[in-house]
Design goal:
Length: 306
């Protein structure tokens, strides 16, 4: 069994996203082989494509990072959001059950509503937008199955890659723009690089122990500390000022009622972290401020090189 576990094949969907991009940077340090299919190779909107790919490549573990994460667009293109966020999970879970392998699926803080956070893994869910709805029904699908399934909730992922709040605000402030940022929504945020390291830990547990070393079927991963969007923007601005940038930029503090969007956002979506688990698994989860500053620095340094 140990020899088999040391040679497991891990399929990662959504490898071009923020977390997947960081995982590609570190996967060679993990003692197993990885599959990072493109959307052409694995079309998650097609049951046939999913099963053809799985039957051909025969993974031992599936990490499903793929998702339709455009919260406002999900209100418009509900069919696509439903297909990617829910139906693909149904198809993947069918294969996992048939082959008796394991699946880690990633969810969101938006499965919760406007009641009081921080939310624990077993807190009642009641999403208030369609994106949250599709992720919630995917969670329900997996929680009704066996222990081969694990759901990881992330919150407001940011990094140097892709489209995200920290990167967008950095670029706007670099242009010395005047921007409005909501201050009355309590949130957790997640650096994609730390999420990738967490996935590496889960894979390592799976290789050594044959399981993820998590007793519940749902787990939360974010950076330490809670915040709101205005405070994140202020940290971005302060770091830009360290580089002599954004001196004429202005950040206005507004309420969520003053912000127009297609989808409603929870006023409190903070996720409770099980820091005892991270301590027991020799993981240090940095505070969100540190990671935001590092991402801003990375963006500035990369601009200077180009």
């Amino acid at each position: 069994m140990e020899n088999y576990r040391n040679k497991i094949k891990v399929l990662v969907t959504g490898g071009s996203g923020q977390v997947g991009s960081h995982l590609k940077q570190i996967y060679k340090n993990i003692n197993c082989s990885f599959l990072f299919p493109t959307r052409i190779e694995l079309d998650l909107s097609s049951k046939k494509s999913i099963f053809d790919y799985l039957n051909k490549n025969k993974p031992d573990l599936i990490i499903n990072l793929a998702a339709f994460t455009k919260v406002d667009q999900a209100e418009i293109d509900q069919k696509k959001a439903y297909t990617i966020n829910y139906m693909s999970v149904v198809f993947l879970s069918e294969y996992v059950l048939e082959k008796n392998i394991s699946l880690i699926n990633f969810s969101t803080d938006y499965v919760f509503n406007d009641t009081s956070g921080p939310y624990k893994t077993n807190s009642s869910r009641n999403p208030i937008n369609y994106y949250g709805y599709t992720k919630n029904i995917a969670e329900k699908r997996l929680e009704d199955l066996n222990d081969n399934f694990l759901t990881i909730r992330l919150a407001s992922v940011f990094s140097e890659y892709g489209h995200n709040f920290v990167k967008t605000i950095t670029n706007l402030l670099l242009e010395n723009k005047e921007i409005n940022v909501v201050y009355d929504q309590k949130i957790s945020i997640t650096y994609a690089g730390d999420a990738a390291l967490f996935i590496a830990k889960l894979i390592n547990n799976y290789i050594i122990k044959g399981n993820f070393n998590i007793s519940n079927k749902v787990f939360h991963f974010t950076n330490n500390g809670y915040t709101e969007w205005y405070s994140v923007a202020k940290v971005v601005h302060r770091k830009l000022l360290d580089f002599g940038e954004g001196k004429n930029a202005i950040i206005n503090r507004i309420t969520s009622n003053d912000w127009s969007s297609m989808a409603k956002r929870p006023n409190d979506s903070r996720l409770y972290l099980d820091n005892d688990w991270f301590n027991d698994n020799d993981m240090i989860i940095p505070k969100w401020e540190l990671r935001v500053e590092e991402v801003v620095s990375s963006i500035i340094l990369n601009k200077e090189k180009s």
